[in-house]
Amino acid sequence: MEAIKSKIGKTVTIIFLVIALLIGSVGYIAWYNLFREVPVYYESPEEHFKYGSIGTEASEGIPYWIWLVLPRLFPEKLPKPGGYTSLGFTWEKGQETPIGISKMTIGFPRQGITCAVCHTSTVRETPKDKPLIFLGGPSSKFDSQSYLRFLAACANDPRFTPDYILSEINYVYNLSWFDKLLYRYVIIPQTKKGILRQAAGLAWMDSRPDWGAGRISPFNPGKFRYLEQPLDDTVDNSDMMSIWNQKIKVESGFAYHWDGLETSLVETIQTGAIGDGASPKSINIEGLKRVEEFITELPPPKYPFALNTELVVKGSKIFNNNCASCHAFGGKKTGTVIPVEEIGTDRHRLDMWTQAAADSYNQYAEDYEWDFDYLRKTNGYVAVSLDGLWLRAPYLHNGSVPSLQDLLEKPENRPQVFYRGYDVYNQEKVGFVAEGAEAQKVGFKYDTSLVANGNQGHLYGTDLPGDEKTALIEYLKTL
């Protein structure tokens, strides 16, 4: 009897061990193929800025092979031919992804968004020239809203199926038989659900004017989706900002964002990552520290075209007498918030941000080693320093004025409609070519009569004589 009991006991033990082994094996296989992280390290700070992870792949990244073939599968959903470049991405020769798109294995290869996608500028002297690339500058051509809408249109298409997608992936990459099963039954269906869930969370965009190339809604997405603030009718469409030369700005205590809602560079970078799709669990704090180090020392780019040195000298005196107190490093008001009533510019961006949103964001990550403490509500816009100003067109916080020449005109004489997103440079006006057949063909139509697109205000310098405006503009090229 005892022998039988012992035998039964051993059998039960073996069965439990086999079950545990099977469960463990299944768990390991699931972890290895769906969640295993393989960090990618770029030795060069510049390459890290362009392609390094900031933690967006796990939460809102798309499987790389699916992402890669979407423009080939659904070209009709893009604004024009050219794949992802038609959405304003800049693709360097020999790279797997455009600047601003990371690639990282989390179970399987995934892509993510990085800071560089919005903060990399391109310039051409003529339409035939190869673009000059300037890191840290505001992208004048990346259309993030059209990118999001492209992904949503693909996922909404009935052809977004394993058969259709796997057949195209097979042309560019040979998945193993196991990976094909994983893509067919798990990855592709979940990707579709994830994109549609994201699109549903951004449906409020459709009731507001489009962002357009080189602009973004920087805080409403986070306000509604992550902070769960009540859905309102505010519009915060804003021009992308330059992020170079941060060392002197930190030392000078500058406020961040157009309305100065942040006073910490560290938090500004971290909230940027959250806005790009990182979650509190996935955010790559070490990767963001490398971004911070890079932009802290990154100098503004020098004007690449010819200068009139005589006019530059004359213009420097005009700048010191008329502009320096608000826009020169060391200026009394530079880096501080100027009341919107004084500036007179479109106030929609300012009114979007509330004290309740600031309070909510300051509590958003309090359970983590990193957190937010310095978000606030202000009553105006920051008097920004003008380093690298020549590359920061269009101008004003909402990008409503195409050139410096236009900015020095009274609002009624500024262009009411123009096109943005064309990176050929206008050296005379100091801005990108914003009119004409090619600009219209390539660019996004910007209409200043639409909500939050107003080009009013900032009358400083508009009363200067014409020759002084010309000299001032020449000097501003050198900053």
Automatic annotation (TrEMBL):
Any transmembrane segments, and where? 12-31
> Where would I find the Cytochrome c domain in this sequence?
310-479
From the Swiss-Prot or TrEMBL record, what is one GO molecular function term? electron transfer activity
| Pfam families reported in the protein's UniProt record | Cytochrom_C, RoxA-like_Cyt-c
> What are the record keywords, sorted?
Heme, Iron, Membrane, Metal-binding, Transmembrane, Transmembrane helix
Output the InterPro entries linked to this UniProt entry.
Cyt_c-like_dom, Cyt_c-like_dom_sf, Cytochrome_c_Peroxidase/MauG
According to UniProt, the name of this protein is C-type cytochrome
Q: Which organism's genome codes for this protein?
A: Limnofasciculus baicalensis BBK-W-15
